Amino acid sequence: MKRFAIVDLETTGNAASKGDRIIEIGVVVMEENGTIVEEFSSLVYPEKEIPPFIRSLTGIENDDVLDAPLFSEIVGDVYPLFQHAYIVAHNIEFDLGFLNDELVRCGYQPLHNPIIDTVEFARILMPTSPTFKLGQLAERLEMGHDRPHRALSDAQVTADLLLYLLKELQRLPERTIQHLLKIEGKLKSDFREFFLKYLEEKRYGSNNESDVMLKHGIAVRKQVPDRAPKTIQLPPFNTWKTQVFEGENGLGSLLPDYEIRKGQQDMTASVKQALEENNHAILEAGAGTGKSVAYLLSAAFQAMESGKRVVISTHTTSLQKQLLEEEIPKVERMFPRPIKAVLYKGKSHYISLIHFHYELERSYQDNYDIALTKAMILVWLTITRTGDVDEIQLPSNGRQFWHKVSSEQSSKTVRLGITDDSFFQWAQEKAAQADLVITNHALLCMDIMKEESALPDYEHVIIDEAHHLEAVASRYFGVRMNYRELQRHLTQFGEIFHKSLYKEWSLQEDFYMNLMRGQQSIDEAKEELSHLSRYIYQSVKKQKRFGKGKSDVGRTQLLLKPGEMPAFIDTAKEMSHRFLAMIKKLIVHMGRMEEQLRMQLAVREDYSIPILLSRLNNQMDVCQQIRSQLIHYFDFTREEEVKWVEIEGEGAVNAIYLFSEPYDVAHLLEQRLFSRKRSAILTSATLSTDGSFEYIRKSLGLKDFANTIEAVIPSPYQFKEQVQLMVPNDFPNIKNDPDSFVEALSEAIYSVAEVTKGRMLVLFTSYEMLRQTYTLLKEFIDPEEFMVFAQGVSSGSRDRLKKNFQAFDQAILLGTSSFWEGVDIPGEDLSCLMMVRLPFQPPDQPIQSMRNERLQKEGKNSFMEKSLPHAIIRFKQGFGRLIRSSSDRGVVFICDQRLIEARYGKYFLNSLPEVPVSYESTRQLINKIEKWL
């Protein structure tokens, strides 16, 4: 029977090489059947101070280790524990590194036993876990972890985790374990003996694998065939609606704290009316209305009654998840049959089994990350219903591998006699049979923009978070390219020219000439791209005259206008043609290779040939897209577009981004969405400005649809009691003295934070000012008192920053544009929302400055027509960050006197619910906050 020595160490830091030492050791010796043979635990005197961070993490103080033994005094007890055992640890390189370091220091031989790393093991056997930290895995598996970051407790939990993972391994299908065996040699852990043992048990024991099927030689979870939903007889809508909201078997019977909300009922009725009468609708529903339940009820009723699907589009994946996992299960209990709802994404999200199988057969050339990725995917395929990459936590280079095996690659295999009947096809079939198809704005815009449809046919669509539609549509109707992405494509193209892929077949000499020339073209294309990017980067950096602004993440922007800077535009265009000539050459070489492979396919049956052909086809398509986009970008005869370049100010000398967007997507949306669909319902908490929908109608192309249903449904929250809005009247003038303004702002942030105990979100409109404020705050705020996080300065994504902010009792979070919306920080985690300036788009931002210019030419007031209503919607979004439930209370502190003093300030205030407004000195306001909170 196998024996395991499970070890955990607490240390003074991360690096033994820098002199960090062990402060505590815990070892559990366990048999394979789970019997604990021995446990050992001891504090260790590290011969140095324990840093404050480690003291707070572990609870081990310097005094605790003063009388502890040196490692050399316990080494005689520790060393024998590892004899004839697998060494197991959660992140084995860390623990074994420190352990061997100490052993060598004490004159012992380092340990070279077989090892198991439970981080790696958990990644493989629990590929959908959102995290692989020991404490969170223990919590997820309900293992009871009473003293995290103490050595023996951590070792005990690691032992429990190991047993759980071995059981999970035992459950895997025979075919999955066979594939894992081929990859095992590239992994850190020594799994081979276990794989062979469980494989033998599968072969000669009772083998129950009824829940999996074999597809293209891979074990996959069995798919339940979808039957078309039946149209059913439903009661009249109004009778049913009354039952749902007020009847004893209605929503009240499912939700413990259910309250009847008139707004929710009104919204349900408006959505149903629009769907039934084939009208468009604009419905603003304030926070707490319960809008998603309202539109789901009507959409599901309509779909079941008519037998026609309804598409629901959202901007964020978190809302999609909420709809599928929380809202639809509630709503479907109001119907006589389950609601068929599917989440539908673009091809690149789904795995292609035929391409994955091809890669599995070539595992001998993998590096560690690719081997780990393959192992994770193999296990995930036995549990996933969707094959959607968003379910699985791939390692850093795993995404690169995913591009090779996503369904994007197999668009052409059908023509070559191989059907990739896997997840994307199954998603299409499910969507075709669904009542509700949930998707995102990006796919919706791609569907209305392209000739071939990206979504199953539909006549009715509900667009939630609709205030984003204009921005997403602008992106999809324009061009977005950047140096890194283009380099990634070129590197990927290079893989198809590897000689080793074709060694099984006897191909003509000519074929190998094309391979060699294709690779040369890639190298030349990379070089030309580098020259082009450097030239653009240097030119933008030098440009001092006009059209230069900063993006919300701090990139320098340069607006490109026809007629201005002709020398720069001509040179860049010329250099882009040189790059595109190489791409053209690449297409020619790929085309010739394709011809020869097709001839090969005619004389021999080999499934690898269609796979390589489909990849060649796919790459030729990408090359054509790059060509058409770059040609389009440098064509300045188009009047209806805004074009600009962005560079990373501090980044690599070729980190450039090229953008173009239409001035106005209204007519495109009018033609391709609102004129073609029977009913499009736009909803969000922020669509009106000053009580009117005129702005949203104009900017989205709805102004000529007279029968559009409109409604503003107010929030049920008691804002008068829950919110105080405060504006200081003594801030320096930002135009005359920007430095003093930043100083006053930093002092106000600190003073308010003292009163609110942190829990503050500060929203900026300028990235530059965010950086200055952050630098200033760090000078006088003690990290022991407040943790300060800043977007773009502190590392991590928006979600990571939000989690860090919520993890600390006293924290301040500084954010720019993306924090103005879609960030939920409910309850006591957020007590104060500070807006530094009213959220007007900076006038030097490319799209803004060109729109202003165009509107002025047309004799219109660009401020009243575009800038003001756009800013009001952003302002309402920012305001909405604070109150997320009926029990939240907080202060909105706005450091912009224009809200009170400018003529247009009243439009902002009129767009908010009625709240008490104070306009006094900063000191008076802080006293008021203290009393009120």
Automatic annotation (TrEMBL):
The keyword ATP-binding applies. Residues 250-512 form the Helicase ATP-binding domain. Belongs to the helicase family. DinG subfamily. Type 2 sub-subfamily. InterPro entries: ATP-dep_Helicase_C (IPR006555), DinG (IPR006310), DinG/Rad3-like (IPR045028), DnaQ (IPR006054), Helic_SF1/SF2_ATP-bd_DinG/Rad3 (IPR014013), P-loop_NTPase (IPR027417), Ribonucl_H (IPR013520), RNaseH-like_sf (IPR012337). It comes from Halobacillus aidingensis. GO terms for molecular function: 3'-5' exonuclease activity; ATP binding; DNA binding; DNA helicase activity; DNA-directed DNA polymerase activity; hydrolase activity, acting on acid anhydrides, in phosphorus-containing anhydrides. This is 3'-5' exonuclease DinG. 3'-5' exonuclease. It is an enzyme of class 3 (hydrolase). Keywords: ATP-binding, Exonuclease, Helicase, Hydrolase, Nuclease, Nucleotide-binding. GO terms for biological process: DNA replication. ATP binds at A285, G286, A287, G288, T289, G290, K291, S292. A motif (DEAH box) lies at residues 464-467. Its EC number is 3.1.-.-.
